[in-house]
Amino acid sequence: MADAELKTAADELASLLAQSSRAVAFTGAGISTESGIPDFRSPGGLWTQNKPIPFQAFVASREARAEAWRRKFTMDDSYRGAAPNRGHLALAALVRAGRLDAIITQNIDNLHQDSGVPEERLIEIHGNGTYATCLACQRRYDLGWVRQRFEARGEPPNCEACEGPVKSATISFGQAMPEDKMRRAAALATDCDLFLAIGSSLVVHPAAGLPAAAAERGASLVIINREPTPLDDLAAMVLRTEIGPLLEAVMERLQLPQVS
């Protein structure tokens, strides 16, 4: 996007935010690429080489659990040190200023929390990859605890409390979505007057149903993504540009300081 187009887009988005009384942001992997975390569909990337193990296979097979943890730690090592970028910081500032009611995210990288978004204003519908839980009793585990035992024995550890399987606290393919978080996300989507879909391909369901629901209930849907999405026709505004520079420019127009 040329400088003039970026200026116009920032002006229009800032105006929508200024007029909104119930704005919600919805983020996907695209917002974290500036932090050095490639999205799932980058050709030849680590995601294609270390595809997540489906949930049913993880539960059924100890060998699958071991492979899942091997792939998990390979990915974690590749992105260690990733920090919030301009897009994350701008959204955190919008939340702090009361311009955004909440952020719904598909991401599992914890960068929204690291940018300063309060837990009560963030809904992680696909879980969080920075810790683990027991699938049987939900006891929480630090990843360092898991890794130490996995690398010492070459086997995935079981829960110390109930011997259940311990899994990264993410929602895997085939795993049920968190009902309470999906209810909260759906309520926000259907009650908002502005829905910002940022850095998401909008093809993964049921998450992709949230921006559609917002538009169908009369909210202005703004899609910020480098590639076309299936919901572009529902949007009041489609911006195919880099997220960080755009949101940084929006913050300047709203005269809001970013979280640092």
Q: How would you portray this structure in words?
A:
The protein is of the alpha/beta class and 260 residues long. It has 10 helices and 9 strands. The strands form 2 sheets. It has a 6-stranded parallel sheet with strand order 3-2-1-7-8-9, sandwiched between helices. Helix 1 packs across helix 10 and helix 8 packs parallel to helix 9. It is elongated, with a radius of gyration of 19 Å. The two termini are 26 Å apart.
How is this structure best summarized?
With 260 residues, this protein is α/β, with parallel strands linked by helices. The chain is built from 10 helices and 9 strands.
Write the SSE topology:
Elements (H helix, E strand, L loop, with lengths): L2 H17 L3 E5 L18 H4 L5 H6 L1 H17 L7 H11 L5 E4 L5 H4 L7 E3 L2 E8 L5 E3 H11 L12 E5 L8 H13 L2 E5 L10 H8 L3 E5 L12 E3 L3 H12 L6
Parallel strand pairs: 1-2, 1-7, 2-3, 7-8, 8-9
Antiparallel strand pairs: 4-5, 4-6
Helix pairs in contact: 1-10, 5-10, 8-9
